[in-house]
Amino acid sequence: MTAPVCTSASAAAAPARQTLPHARLAPSATALYPSFASYVRARHPALLRTARSLTANPSDAEDLLQTALAKTYVAWERIEDHRALDGYVRRALLNTRTSQWRRRRVDEFVCDELPEPEPRPGADDPAERQALRDAMWRAVLRLPARQRAMVVLRYYEDLSEAQTADLLGVSVGTVKSAVSRALGKLREDPELDLAR
Questions:
Q1: pLDDT tens for each residue of 114-150
Q2: CA-CA distance, 194 to 196, in Å (whole number)?
Q3: Among 189, 176, 172, which residue's Cα sits nearest to residue 147?
């Protein structure tokens, strides 16, 4: 295998600009089936978009499309309806991607102890988390209406102090002081004290 030698950046860029993505086909491919070459030239961008929707990596999408086009080339004489070529190539893309996914190996190693993650405090029981959320929401509902509105806009809707002030038609200082008082009441709420 020979490594390409580049004499200058401009000399290397000139041939790259002339090379089209579909020009990777072997010269014999274009000579044997000129209709295949013209099909690839015409449909390459659309087929590449389909390949990109099947993979997360653009390079993998190009490889996937090349593999699907190679399969299409091999079956070119057997394809009777050339109006359905897009469907054929898309099916080849999907089948190839599915085969790649199925072939992916997962290595398993035998060990004496299972590598279980250590339980995090407070995050071990979903029922406990839900009970805490419910208690918090009941405490918020016990706040005065104006403070409740500001707490909900600031912390549940994630608005800034300025956005909350604009929405409620008050000053930013009013929002700061009302939210501070509301948080103080929530800290003193006996139901939340039991939930902690």
A1: 777 676 665 567 788 888 888 888 999 899 989 999 9
A2: 6
A3: 176
Q: State pTM to two decimals.
A: 0.40
Q: Which two tokens stand for residue 22?
A: 């579909």
Task: Give the torsion through C-alpha atoms of 7, 15, 55, 48, to 10 deg.
Answer: 180
Give every CB contact of residue 39 below 8 A, 6+ residues apart in sequence.
Answer: 82, 85
Residue of 80, 194, 41 whose CA lies nearest to 131: 194
Q: Between vectors from CA 93 to CA 75 and to CA 37, what angle results, nearest 5°? A: 50
Measure the CA–CA gap between 147 and 73, rounded to whole angstroms: 69
Q: Give CB contacts under 8 A, 24+ apart, made by 94-102.
A: 94/54, 96/64, 96/67, 96/68, 96/71, 97/54, 97/55, 97/64, 100/64
DSSP state, residue 124: S
Token digits for 51?
Answer: 């390949």
- Asked whether the beta carbons of 165 and 108 are under 8 A apart, the reply is no
